[in-house]
Amino acid sequence: MFSTELVVQTFISGVMIGVLYALMALGITFIYSIMRMINWAMGEFYMIGSYLQYMLVAFLLGPDLWWLAIPISAAGVFAFGLVVQWGLIKPIFKKPPEARDDYATVVTLALLLLLRSLATGLAGPNQFTPGSNLPIVMVGPMPMAGARVAAFVFALVALALFYGVLRYSWYGLALRATSQSRVGVQTAGIDVLGIDRVAFGIGVALAGLAGALLAPVFLVFPTNGLITTVKGFEIVVIGGLGSIPGALIAGILLGLIESFGAAFIDSAYQNIYGFALVLLILAFKPTGLFGERGREA
Amino acid sequence: MRKQGFFLAAAVAAALSATCLPVQAQDIGIGLIVPLSPPGDPTGGQLIRRGAEMGIDAVNNAGGVLGGRKFKLYVEDSQGKPEAGVAAYRRLVSEDKVVFVPGFFHSSVAIAANEVAKDMGVPTMSLQASAAEITSKHYETAFRTHAVDQVRVATFMELIKKKGFKRISMIAETTDYGIGIADETIAQAKKVGGLEVQKIAFDRSVTDLTPQLLQVKAFKPDLVINIGVGQPCDLIIDQATTIGLLPNTPMIVSYDAPARPQFWKLHEKNGAGIYFIAYYSPKTPLSDIGKSFAAAYTEKYKEDPVYGALNGYGAIQIIAQAINAAKSTDSKALIKTLETGTFKSWPDAPVTFPRAEGVYWHNWVPPVLILHYTKPMQDWKDAEVEVQYSAPAAK
């Protein structure tokens, strides 16, 4: 029953889904690290990315140019994110109300419901798939859909690119500085609201990218972002809020624990294993594996 | 004070005039609870809704019921969630004052709503929910025009016998529907004997079913029974293809999703070879009601009707006949009439709801078929009929 082949296959499956989970979570943790707010509508940006990918592939570019549709979908979500930030989020930060976090929560929850209802109204409740011409490939002993392998590679490249920009560019320096002290960067003459705008756009574009990459694998429908939000927050708690390496490692950890739990304990409780890990982390390291304890004056 | 008195008098006058309206002028509310958004199966819900809406139009265009009263349809979205279904039932009965609530695609929603219906008194009719519990509890208010778990599984067994399958793997969602069918399959397989059965359960919200399917593959089954509804059903087909389970191992889908026009849009490359349960095929003889509906549906939607739409239409026709026969919209009178009468619906067979034993209580069961796609992009009308099974006569 527990053959070596099944163990290896389960491991590969866990790592691959884990990296994709990490991409989903990265946007949440990035926006939080810059703006100190949680975007509860993150899954809906994933959903928009998947719909854009479907529409581009099905009606404009065709299945052969699926790879071109991916950056276009992510860019589309980025642009939409800029509009959302300008219209709904910026006013909260420009003249901050007393309970800014509460306002941000209410605004993003309302946005979640609005976008989900709009998707159902405009595209109907049915499932779609952009399809894929990529063949099934062997990853070790594990046959995998070409689209899933492509999503995995794209996700790794996107994570590396994101890390590189953040680490080695001037703009990345400004973003990192903002995450450390919003007041500090303002004294250095940096437009912090401009940084917010770009950070929000990049954060939601990461979710949109995940949506576009996974559209042929997990189908396109109005509530497909729900699982993204749930997994994203699990990863943020496990890895530590605001930690990018934490998101990657926690994503892989979550993917592995779910895969092994489903394969070797009981498949009916696949979602429970992740939550058990969350509880364990909260009990022994409440800041997450790579999170930092907040400093209070 | 004088102003308040005036408004009070106006309100009383309005209330009196409303109650004094001739009975014939009042619409009769019919509720419909179906999934119209995920995590339910919105396509299934939409098809039932189409049929029910056309049923309402047909009844009203024919002069209504009780000498001219028209039907008015109130549609509620259950989202496939029991709690949403219960809230919808309460709203329909308390606020919209409906006299009957057909619909119910997901068994867990029907079971939950029936618990409330038995106290509130307005009858329900499950049109595509198959869990035994829906009718086996013998509630006065619970009716059904759909195949029960036992019949569905007996149909699986006919295919298993016909093809000589010995190792059966089930991948089932953890809902009343999924677990009900999986447990019934295990029970019937024991009776048949000589079969090895594997049951793998999964949570409906899980999108990556690779770990579960790897276990199925390791079991080396002769047949995989796909007991997912809506999106999980499609994900199982796709992910089973990826790991090489399909098309090498035959798969049967536990309900009629592959008959829907959407199926080949999602499974252009991996839909061939799939077996699926159906409750109607264009080869099934239709009644006059069924024939006129099929023609009108095809003209309106430019596609052939499938079972969900036929059953939605049929339910409204049955309710209209029951109201006319009872000469009343009173729940108790309607229940009595349904239990004792014979009704016409879409199939060319009489429909009855006797107080029968076990799961056949208040339950009319259509014949169940297993269809087989033998070619890619095959029209479901041309799918091969592998098995046709009729439920034993109710006692």
From TrEMBL, chain A:
GO terms of molecular function: transmembrane transporter activity
Swiss-Prot/TrEMBL keywords: Amino-acid transport, Cell membrane, Membrane, Transmembrane, Transmembrane helix, Transport
Coiled coil region boundaries: none
GO biological process, one term: amino acid transport
Membrane topology: Multi-pass membrane protein
Annotated transmembrane regions: 6-33, 45-62, 68-89, 101-125, 145-166, 198-221, 233-256, 268-284
Family under the similarity heading: Belongs to the binding-protein-dependent transport system permease family. LivHM subfamily.
Listed PANTHER family: AMINO ACID ABC TRANSPORTER PERMEASE PROTEIN, BRANCHED-CHAIN AMINO ACID TRANSPORT SYSTEM PERMEASE PROTEIN LIVH
Protein name: Branched-chain amino acid transport system permease protein
Keyword match Cytoplasm: no
Cellular component, GO, one term: plasma membrane
Presence of the UniProt keyword Membrane in the record: yes
InterPro entries: ABC_transp_permease, BCAA_transport_permease
TrEMBL record, chain B:
Keywords assigned: Amino-acid transport, Signal, Transport
Entries under SUPFAM superfamilies matching the protein: Periplasmic binding protein-like I
Gene3D superfamilies, per database record: 3.40.50.2300
GO term, biological process aspect, one: amino acid transport
Domain Leucine-binding protein: from-to ranges: 28-362
Signal peptide from the UniProt entry: 1-25
Family, similarity comment: Belongs to the leucine-binding protein family.
Name of the protein in question: Branched-chain amino acid transport system substrate-binding protein
Organism: Enhydrobacter aerosaccus
